[in-house]
């Protein structure tokens, strides 16, 4: 048996001013989307904003439901909307921001496993890495280039062949 290592690469920023202006704008759109989330149960609002290669920006936010598993995360709302509205366009970047009434989210909040899997499928389908930027309620953020850095052993259509 061989032991192997997985190395994840990411950039961490303590202040939004360290990010490119376009990325700051996308985070601000994600924050706006989070403010419109339907999260009456958790009070944990998440917003996502993605930019497609055709220049279009799509936003989404989490949508909760009294039957908890029936809700949907912001990232998947945005990704599915983009795929529905612009089926041939490629996702270049997605920004994710959170907002909550319960406490202050200082650490950048990373996407859940289900959202990571959908991002990995999107990336695999389009044949191009997706940049992912996620943040909390402060200026701190994490940037990763490609899902190999968030979901290194992802399940793709190659596993079904």
Quick synopsis:
The protein is α+β, with helices and mostly antiparallel strands and 161 residues long.
Stretches with pLDDT under 50, minimum 5 residues: none
Helix content: 25-40%
Number of domains as seen in the coordinates? 1
Overall average residue pLDDT? 94
Break the fold down into its secondary structure elements and pairings.
Elements: E1 11-13, H1 21-35, E2 44-52, E3 57-61, H2 74-85, E4 91-100, H3 113-126, E5 131-135, E6 141-145
Parallel strand pairs: 4-5
Antiparallel strand pairs: 1-6, 2-3, 2-4, 5-6
Report what the structure shows.
With 161 residues, the protein is α+β, with helices and mostly antiparallel strands. The protein has a single domain (11-156), classed as Cytidine Deaminase, domain 2. 25% of the residues lie in helices and 23% in strands. It has 3 helices and 6 strands, in the order E-H-E-E-H-E-H-E-E. The chain has helices spanning 21-35, 74-85, 113-126, and strands spanning 11-13, 44-52, 57-61, 91-100, 131-135, 141-145. A 6-stranded mixed beta sheet has the order 1-6-5-4-2-3, sandwiched between helices. The longest helix has 15 residues, at 21-35. The chain is globular. The two termini are 25 Å apart.
Features:
globular; alpha+beta; six-stranded mixed sheet; 25% helix; 161 residues; Cytidine Deaminase, domain 2
């Amino acid at each position: 048996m061989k032991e192997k290592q997985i190395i994840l690469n990411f950039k961490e920023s303590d202040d939004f001013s360290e990010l490119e202006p376009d990325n700051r704008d996308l985070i601000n759109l994600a924050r706006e989307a989070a403010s419109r989330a339907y999260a009456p149960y958790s009070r944990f609002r998440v917003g996502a904003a993605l930019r497609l290669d055709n220049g279009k920006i799509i936003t989404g936010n989490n949508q909760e439901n009294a039957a908890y598993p029936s809700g949907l995360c912001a990232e998947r709302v945005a990704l599915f909307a983009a795929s529905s509205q612009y089926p041939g366009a490629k996702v270049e970047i997605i920004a994710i921001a959170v907002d909550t009434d319960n406490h202050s989210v200082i650490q950048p909040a990373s996407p859940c496993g289900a959202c990571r899997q959908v991002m990995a499928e999107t990336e695999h389908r389009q044949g191009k890495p997706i940049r992912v930027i996620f943040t909390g309620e402060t200026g701190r953020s994490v940037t990763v280039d490609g899902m190999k850095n968030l979901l290194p052993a992802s399940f793709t259509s190659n596993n079904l062949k």
